[in-house]
Design a protein that fits this description.
By secondary structure, the protein is an all-alpha fold. 78% of the residues lie in helices and 1% in strands. α8 runs antiparallel to α9.
Length: 336
């Protein structure tokens, strides 16, 4: 019971980080494609949307790491060792992105330094989710623990076409989320139309990148299609995520911002749910798969961990809801 509960907290934290934190990364990606027309105004919309909440959204990543470190220490150690290279790059991206966003916002001298900050912000916004996807792909591929030298132990587990395709898929998914969310952050009809258009483009790219994941898996000898077909829950998640495409596009076309946001977040949650179902009960596919049971800490550790998580949920969730209400309750462009 304790193992499943801790795994549930881990899964929910990853989903919430993707839905909220992923949109922040996607907003940085959007900056790279604003174009010259009304570029400053579009950037202001992105800054105003991210400003109050971008740091708070990292709480979900912190919770996931805390649960993994304390609840499943063997998985944490394997992950942090086998994937230390992409994880280092990912962490550097998070730091560079946060610093560049903050420096650009508070630097009153709008000179060439702002262009440097903006370039770093956009580049790190791509790099971090790409590496996150690379690690996720490596966790599925099963090349961890194969032995050999440094290359075989610390590079080949994640340096593959499949992992790169998952990284691109994550980038497209986050860019899509951000564009959908940004539609409701302005009353300007032209800017809303631009963000809605980018949301549709990013949604199409997400579908294409998803197909690329399956092709890359086949090229790497990983039977992803067969595994999906053999897991009804994963297949159902994929079907439901695909079925949400049509109503999502209708909601974007008709300006139903709240509906579009719910559908977009649901799509991301379904994608992750399909991954979780496909992996369960394996945390990291390896020469000797690391499962929830084999990686779990003793009950003497899991029990207080769960008590702390429950107490933290009671304390933190109302504060986060209050934060969002304070800064977003007057946000224009919602359809209720």
């Amino acid at each position: 019971m304790y193992i499943e509960a801790a795994a549930g907290y881990l899964g929910v934290s990853v989903v919430l980080y993707a839905v909220f934190g992923g949109a922040d990364f996607g907003a940085g990606m959007q900056e790279a494609f604003l174009g010259a027309h009304r570029r400053a105004e579009q950037r202001d919309v992105i800054t105003e949307a991210m400003g109050p909440v971008w740091e708070a959204n990292h709480i979900w990543l912190i919770i996931a790491l805390v649960v993994l470190f304390n609840g499943f220490p063997r998985a944490f150690s394997t992950l942090s060792v086998a994937f230390h290279l992409p994880l280092i790059v990912m962490l550097l991206g998070i730091v560079l992105r946060g610093c560049s966003f903050t420096f650009r916002h508070y630097d009153t001298h709008k000179d060439q330094s702002h262009a440097v900050y903006s370039a770093l912000f956009a580049a790190a916004s791509f790099l971090t989710p790409f590496m996150l996807g690379v690690v996720a792909g490596g966790m599925m591929l099963g090349r961890v623990g194969a032995g050999g030298g440094y290359l075989e132990r610390y590079v080949l587990p994640w340096a593959s076409a499949f992992s790169a395709a998952v990284g691109l898929f994550v980038c497209a998914l986050f860019a899509f989320l951000a564009a959908v969310y940004l539609v409701g952050e302005t009353e300007d009809a032209e800017l809303r139309g631009r963000f809605a258009g980018r949301a549709k483009v990013a949604n199409g790219l997400s579908v294409g990148a998803g197909g690329l994941v399956f092709l890359a898996a086949q090229a790497d000898g990983f039977p992803l299609v067969q595994r999906f077909l053999a897991h009804p829950a994963s297949l159902a998640c994929m079907v439901l995520a695909t079925a949400a495409l049509a109503p999502l596009w209708v909601a974007l076309s008709k300006g139903r911002t709240s509906t579009a946001r719910v559908l977009a977040a649901s799509q991301v949650a379904l994608v992750l749910g399909g991954w979780f179902a496909l992996q369960y009960p394996v945390l990291i596919a390896a020469s000797e798969p690391i499962t929830l049971a084999s990686a779990a800490a003793p009950d003497a550790v899991l029990r207080p961990l769960l008590y702390a998580l429950i107490a933290g949920t009671v304390l933190v969730l109302p504060v986060l809801v209050f934060l969002l209400r304070v800064f977003k309750m007057r946000t224009p462009g919602h359809d209720g």
